[in-house]
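Page 42, continued from yesterday. The earlier attempt failed because a stray header line got pasted into the input along with the sequence. Redoing it now with the clean sequence only.
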Amino acid sequence: MDIEEFTALATATADPDPLLGLQAVSQMRAETERLEAVLVRRARNNGSSWAQIATILGVSKQAVHKKHGGRGLLGGRS
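This time it went through. Structure tokens are written below.
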């Protein structure tokens, strides 16, 4: 998804029809989850630790590892 599409979704959240706004939120959430996974993978491949990633995301190291650890990222480095 490119920036224009994401911006259109963000704009749609202000639609007078709350169902259309909720649909946009759902699509934004899915795209955000996808992008987070890509960036975590990049960070790990660049040598970032689970602790560093967890700090940036505002979660525990265990939480980020549980969410992203089983996706073929580099080994069990901390």
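Notes: Confidence is low (pLDDT under 50) at residues 73-78.
Reminder to self: strip header lines before submitting.
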